[in-house]
Amino acid sequence: MSDELLEDARITAMGLFVEAFTGLNARLSVQLAEHGLGNVDFEVLVRLSRSPGGELRMTDLAAQTGLSTSGVTRVVDRLERDGLAMRRACPTDRRGSFTVVTPAGVAKMHAVLPGHVALIDEWFTGRLAPDALDSMLTSLRTIRDAVRPGATSGIHPAPAPRAAA
């Protein structure tokens, strides 16, 4: 093995990305736990809340989150048990079903998001100049679309990035 590969900027980029993600995730996880949510529960609620009508087909939810169908079923079971989401049969496909965020789920998001956004601003986006944030959003979407092509299943295209105020 060449020592040049050990010093390759691509290895450095990946390492920095992983370190930044795990550090941010640790800080954000504490805040979510204070509201009785795990990371996956929060991700599902965010995706439902940001979707038209507050709902997604179970298959689209699995594609967006990267969870298996059984994994999505377990998360939705938990959210249903807690009154944060519910299932609704698909009127055009009896094999399909939707997961819908409930009013209690929306209320939970309203309780969680102010502190969550404040932490994101403190430890992530607030540390970047507006043009750097726009560039990073574009770059992350390019990478995401390549490695997780189903990540936007069931939704409309994302709006163009905007600079933070």
From TrEMBL:
It comes from the Bacteria. InterPro entries: HTH_MarR-typ (IPR000835), MarR/SlyA-like (IPR039422), WH-like_DNA-bd_sf (IPR036388), WH_DNA-bd_sf (IPR036390). One of its GO terms (molecular function) is DNA-binding transcription factor activity. Signal peptide: none annotated. Pfam families: MarR_2. Residues 2-145 form the HTH marR-type domain. GO terms for biological process: response to stress. This is MarR family transcriptional regulator.
